[in-house]
Amino acid sequence: MSIEIKKLIKFGNEKNLKNLLKKGEVYMRSIKSFREDDKSGIGDRYEGMSIISNNSSPYIKEQNPLKNRPNKMHITQVSVHREGHVGNIFSTYAISGLSLKTPVHQIDQRMKDNGSHCLVITNVKDFTERIFNSLKEKGFKYEEGLVKYNNFEKNYHTPNYFKKSDIWSYQMEHRIFVKTPQESPLIINIGSIEKYTEMYKSVDLIKGFQI
């Protein structure tokens, strides 16, 4: 990683997080499933898009085709989804040098939408290397990094797996993207991470977590 990450926080439901904590069960969702999910804080209609083009139209067409009036109406053309299955993603909330711009780092309240519980992972190097080694052993190609956030409501964009709309910037996401052959969850096992990880209720962590 070119940017040092101090801690990773994984939000989710209690059962899945216990499986990650005690067994090292890493669950990676497909990109398509994120796009189709309508749950607040999870679903993202931009996932898997290759082109986002925003244009301004000088006219609004009314019912009478002869009566068009000038207007700075904003038209968003959201196209094109990448064809077929793209891959799977494991995402976490990253506390890095970029996020530590003030003496106190406060997690946004909206992160509670991402799950009732969370894991705070302090040995980021060991955790991520275990994932990478498992993926290599299985013959998967992967990429990892911090997500960059852009205003998709303006101009022209070519999103990828590490570029998202700035409406999600509060999630401060670190991603591991895996190129997989079929549309299904990917599950790997890396062994217990209990020695450097603690579990909290999301509401308690967000209320009291400071760096």
Give a description of the structure.
The chain has helices at 14-23, 31-36, 124-137, 202-208; strands spanning 5-12, 25-30, 52-60, 69-78, 88-96, 117-121, 141-146, 148-150, 156-157, 163-165, 173-179, 186-189, 197-201. The protein has 211 residues and is an alpha+beta fold. It has one domain (5-45, 85-208). Strands 1, 2, 5, 6, 7, 11, 12 and 13 form an eight-stranded antiparallel sheet that branches. A hairpin with an 8-residue loop joins β3 (52-60) and β4. The two termini are 21 Å apart. Mean pLDDT is 78; it is low at 56-82.
Helix and strand topology:
Layout: E1 5-12, H1 14-23, E2 25-30, H2 31-36, E3 52-60, E4 69-78, E5 88-96, E6 117-121, H3 124-137, E7 141-146, E8 148-150, E9 156-157, E10 163-165, E11 173-179, E12 186-189, E13 197-201, H4 202-208
Key terms for this structure?
211 residues; alpha+beta; 8-stranded antiparallel beta sheet; 3-stranded antiparallel beta sheet; 4 helices; 18% helix
Uncertain regions: pLDDT < 50 for 5+ in a row? 56-82
Mean pLDDT: 78
Terminal Cα separation, in Å? 21 Å
Tally of contiguous helical segments: 4
How many beta-strand runs?
Answer: 13
Shape: globular
Largest sheet: 8 strands, antiparallel
Gyration radius, to the nearest Å?
A: 20 Å
Structural class of the secondary structure composition? alpha+beta
**Binned strand content:** 35-45%
H/E series: EHEHEEEEHEEEEEEEH
- How many separate domains? 1
Give the fraction of residues assigned to helices.
10-25%
